[in-house]
């Protein structure tokens, strides 16, 4: 019976696996709206609603309400939002993004809502055909409602700036000031060629709409999204023409087009010409900025034009977008606002870093003072016990003489401790001319060049070393942040944390200047440390801290390795591809809890080159 039941389950699995993508859409669409992955590239992780562990996304995978998608560098995923009551919407998520489906419903109309907290999206909406249909994209500062349109959205998690670029149709954006008690809102409508920048300051919601400045826009655009945008070139052009025709019809009827770029025939002519040139100028700028390998983008454009039988994207176009004086001024205001917001967030982050550094120094000082107090109490008790044991060996006369001598010495020294113990006076510390410095270097790699055959398992080890921390610069506590490029290598947490007495990464720390208790049973351990792997915005970082709990501050004269970090090579190429590893912040404190200044950071970065043998 059990065997038959198992066979039946296996047959069901085989039949479901053999279903086409359309079959999968139909099965799920009967009950609710789902998103189906039609293409996956690079690192893409999915955290299912209610789950605790993410897993790799795969083609034909279905995503439901509450699911969260995270992409790594060079990672992207293309989705189709299937529905039994509406046309398919398409969403492409670019690299270094975090997106959540907060709503996927079909109750009284097709409804979809996505939250993007970091990264970028390319959205092509078809499902909104009546008042009950809704498609919304929410950023930390705005909610964008759309009707039959194609647009781009990005969120910079560092500056908290949201960008919305229109390419076809009209996008309605509602920007909310989340901390405002009155629930302040700003509604704006974005047309093709326009870019909306929005963020929240301490007082209000801030928005700036202007004609898209393409060089800045392309610089922060994901190549995967640019390629998808080009694949949709024909539908973009058709929708743009439909919009222009509607505006033209309304102008001829004596009506003012609502939320339009044009209020006169001449303005309409300029707007229509700008729309037609938009994609060609976008591609030209991408070629100039080398967003793709040489010749790759030109081949994509040639194929698109050839398949469509017409030149929709013209790489030889010489005319740029035509802007009025008013539009140029709006563009400059927008750029100035972006610069000011970026500088403001940079200063705020600098202030938070100083607070973290001071908090670390305060914590280390408090821990040292507490240890000193415990040590004094322990030493006092030990001295008293030693004195009592000594007096037990004396005769009554010798004991009386000892007490008289002790009292006389206390009066001479002014001490009231009741215990006299001579202490050696420390000699002067040797003069050390070395400047405190930190250095990064890849272990055993000549010129920091690596080929897969050079190390078992394609692992490279990055050494963090210190020198010149002597005398008054001896270290009692250390914290450093390292940022790296994950396009070629990823930090190997499993290898670093492997439980083994022969783990080389543990041995480096336990035998190094801090004598870390790394779980290897070191009886003379003097420090504890911690390593955290996290993302700051889209950049992966490692935060390492080490603190002494006994002994004196670590004096590091000649260069010594403090920690060794394993990285697994993920993308060896046919040509040299440098990846930069750099220490972006370091704080060292002495035994008194004072921050050690003047650290030389000239050796705090290393560029790794990965080559195919």
Question: What does this molecule look like?
Answer:
The protein has 613 residues and is of the alpha+beta class. Among the domains are: 67 residues; 177 residues, Immunoglobulin-like. It contains 11 helices and 26 strands. The strands form 3 sheets. The chain has a 15-stranded mixed beta sheet that branches. A 6-stranded mixed beta sheet has the order 17-26-24-19-22-21. Strand 21 and strand 22 form a beta hairpin. Helix 5 runs antiparallel to helix 6. The chain is elongated and about 125 Å long. It starts with a helix and ends with a strand. The N terminus is likely disordered.
List segments where confidence is low: pLDDT < 50 over at least 5 consecutive residues. 1-31, 415-433
CATH topology group of one domain: Immunoglobulin-like
Which oligomeric state applies?
single chain
Helix content: 25-40%
CATH class of one domain: Mainly Beta
Task: State mean pLDDT (0 to 100 scale).
Answer: 79
Taking the alpha carbons of the first and last residues, their distance comes to 56 Å
**Total helix count?**
11
Strand percentage: 25-35%
**What is the SS-derived class?**
alpha+beta
Please compute the radius of gyration using only Cα atoms. Answer: 33 Å
